[in-house]
Amino acid sequence: MKVFKIVILVLITGLVGIQFFPASLNQNNTITKTDFAKTFNAPNEIQNLLKKSCYDCHSNNTIYPWYSKVQPMAWMMEDHINEGKKELNFNEFGAYSKRKQKSKLKSIISQIKDGEMPLSSYTLMHGDATLSEKDKQLLVDWFTNVRDNLNK
Amino acid sequence: MKFFKTTITVATVFVFALFITSCKNEKKTANEEMNHETEMKSDNHNEMGHDNSDGHHDNDMATTSEKRDIQASTQKNAATTPIIDAYFQIKNGLVADDKDAAAKGGKALLAAFSGFDMSKLTGDTHKEYMEIYEDAKEQAEHIVKSPIDHQREHFETLTTDINDLITLLGTEKKMYQAFCPMANDGKGAIWLSEFKEIKNPYFGSKMLTCGSVQKEI
Description:
In chain A, 60% of the residues lie in helices and 0% in strands. Chain A has eight helices and no strands.
């Protein structure tokens, strides 16, 4: 029992302790000229879907949930966001080379079609980010159109 | 046991308190964000602005002449060989439905690119090479870590890159460009092969001989 108490104590002290090491926040509150929606003149409907389902990890602005204030969640989230932005940053899409834009569009379309994005671990906590079949179709059609225009 | 219960209670209260306070915060920041849709000048993307204008590079190789003839896809250039060989390694992995072999090819491709000497490339050629390299590298990274259906998708994009690379810089290798009308969701896709015989990397054993040779390089 004594060992158990010590373990619990250490765990709790640790949990409290790491609260003092905050993660850096992904919040710029600005819209860049190179933003995807601007570059390709996305209609509002598309923009709203992207903001709701993608921008938390794939842009320079995250709308943080309450638990992001608690460690170690904040660190995990920071990692996810960094990885997400490295893969695809909608805010900087306009600055990508044509080649990169095309291959990113291809991946975006395929990920949405296969339901791999948004990640299920993300929609678990963000129910409203789940894309309905209709949403998916809308996005896939629109992205495909953008890609076809780039290929011309 | 009493101690244990107290600890749990304290911990629960602690988490609860955090929950309540941060919930408020979240609403506030969300509102702020709504009023904050300000415009901003895009910051200069410095990392994009590769400065290749220093002109220090020796220009003694025929393949690096400033004027590039896009049609001359068969320039002799041995420098691209390791890259093309690694690409074939990925392709052959996919033909054999062997995810690990394809991943190994992906690693080989990354190594081949880092071993490529681009100091002889100048101006537009360098710029285009960098774009191809950047994209191909990403595809290779995904091929290294993805399941086979994803590897095939990335291979398709990679093929475009390698094909453009050969058009840009040339090759000393003899190869064939084949076309599979069923790949890419029925839109069709090309691949490059060192063999004339059709062995389809997009479907592997499922449809090994689907496709036809379009041209010889």
